[in-house]
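Project standup — Tuesday

K.O.: blocked on the structure for the chain from last sprint. Re-posting the sequence here as requested.
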Amino acid sequence: MEAIRVVAFDCDGVMFDTVQANKAYYNHILEHFGRPAMSPEQFAYSHMHTVDQSISNLFKNEKHIQAAHKYRKKMSYLPFLKYMEIEPYLKPLLEKLKARYKTAVATNRTDTMDRVITAHGLEGYFDLIVSASDVKHPKPHPEPLIRVMKHFKIAPEQLMYIGDSTLDETAAKAAGAVFVAYGNESLPAEFHIQSLKEMEDILLV
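H.V.: unblocked you, prediction finished:
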């Protein structure tokens, strides 16, 4: 992959297994308002989309949506960090990439991303982090990846993006980036991996 200059990562489902963290987070908000826990369909949506989109999907009514956001913004995310499991080969891979590649994160997380990075000792590991707060249109729109390209002044084919959802695949395709599907064989992709360790062979590091 000689053309690749930047390797970008999705957060949830790639850098971390966040299934339990996201379930606990949204179910806590629902419980506060006396609502039942998420259905499997609601969780599948919330696991991929932004918090704004997820709250809207869960609460529907505008008054209730605003109340949920007000509560969410004052509650701490720290109790939920313990449920996040870092991908075992994330840090080793990032260390190996330093010599030849720039690294980035393109995520639909919003105001929790800084705390996630700090809590897991990832400060300084990435050259750029683009969250949903940094763009007008989050994934599946290609804007987060286009922002990465513009920052590093690279062509689409020089960006490799690792994601695990249809939102990631759609964004990568629209942006013209090389897409790597993590843990999801059903996604159309240039490469499929089950572990970030496999990226060492793909990128020859």
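K.O.: great, moving the ticket to review. Residues 19-81 form one domain. The mean pLDDT is 96.
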